[in-house]
Amino acid sequence: MAETSKPTIVLVHGGFVDGAGWEGVYNLLKKDGFNVGIVQNPTTSLADDVAATRQIIAQAEGPVVLVGHSYGGVVITEAGNDPKVSKLVYIAAFAADKGESVASLIKDPPPGAAVPPILPPQDGYLFLDKAKFAASFAADVEPAKAEFMANSQVPWGLKALEGAVSEASWRTKPSWYLVATDDRMIPPPAQQFMAKRAGATVVESKGSHAVYVSRPEAVASVIKSAALA
What we know:
By secondary structure, the chain is of the alpha/beta class. It is built from 10 helices and 8 strands. The strands form 2 sheets. Strands 2-1-3-4-7-8 form a 6-stranded parallel sheet, sandwiched between helices. The protein is globular, with a radius of gyration of 16 Å.
């Protein structure tokens, strides 16, 4: 396939982290000849993060495959209404419906489900307990890197947590979903439910919530499948 016919892939991170976590996935996609954009969400509010994502979409040549991890799934669900976006890929992500937010999707966890170690808000922002970060978010990431992720957390705004989708782009555009089977932030059954509701093509992979860091090959494979479908 000629490189000019390949869509641009835009990667959107979630809460508590930044776009640098996509480096392994980025390198694999670039090696296969894709143009790849990475969004640096301010994670201050859903509106701000959608605006940041639309800036990268606007810079892209041709159609865009929009990829979101975790809270980034809410961002791509909203930003995916942009006419340049042709496909959506959710990586252990919140595939929210109209009127839903991360806050509404996590408010009633099923009995026995792992509960993310989110600390009480500080000045309108959230952090994960550093001591519990690795076990909950990055259990299969190399320990030194997981510790770095815990200590380099990006403050996650309550307005991002509570930001609700106005129109769910997955209702009109094809989607793919990678379920991380060892996720302790978003329970795998919740991932399966959202993927099925979105009518997504579902792939399961072993991996923690940080599957995009720990298993970039599996994540890049799903993204490539979507891009070339």
